[in-house]
């Protein structure tokens, strides 16, 4: 397969997934209405699927400045309970699923692969959070403060905390990479 054809198929799947998620959210808005927990749960389901499937697994994310974890961030995340959130994900078995998908082999080379996975996951969840806030604003304009609160309230454990958890994992990766570089 030529590079151009490969690029086209690589781009087509995320676009199709994005269109399906957007269509699902739009249909939910029309059929359910943005006024309560059902629409918020359906929306977060679509956005979570989109975050998980919409970003190509082979996509290399550059070292954008905002993706670098600052030294003060791990303390902030610990303070707002992100580590506890990670423990809950361990208890319910979610982290086993994610660990299997990441394929981290514990090697130095594997650190780069793990770093890229956290970047893709953070971007997907951050986009889901931004979309949720946008939909919440639209719900407020529509006249549903309750619907807006449900959208943002459910987006926090589905998108905000997972994005912060990725940053916490990446802080550990960055610290380990610095120690390796100093040897």
UniProtKB/TrEMBL annotation:
Keywords, sorted A to Z: Acyltransferase, Cell membrane, Membrane, Signal, Transferase, Transmembrane, Transmembrane helix
A single Gene Ontology CC term: plasma membrane
Superkingdom to which the source organism belongs: Bacteria
Pathway participation: Carotenoid biosynthesis; staphyloxanthin biosynthesis; staphyloxanthin from farnesyl diphosphate: step 5/5
One Pfam family matching this protein: CrtO
InterPro entries on file: CrtO
Transmembrane feature ranges: 37-55, 76-94, 129-152
GO molecular function: acyltransferase activity
Subcellular location: Cell membrane
Membrane topology designation: Single-pass membrane protein
Cited function: Catalyzes the acylation of glycosyl-4,4'-diaponeurosporenoate, i.e. the esterification of glucose at the C6'' position with the carboxyl group of the C(15) fatty acid 12-methyltetradecanoic acid, to yield staphyloxanthin. This is the last step in the biosynthesis of this orange pigment, present in most staphylococci strains.
Family membership: Belongs to the acyltransferase CrtO family.
Protein's name according to its UniProt entry: Glycosyl-4,4'-diaponeurosporenoate acyltransferase
Species annotation: Bogoriella caseilytica
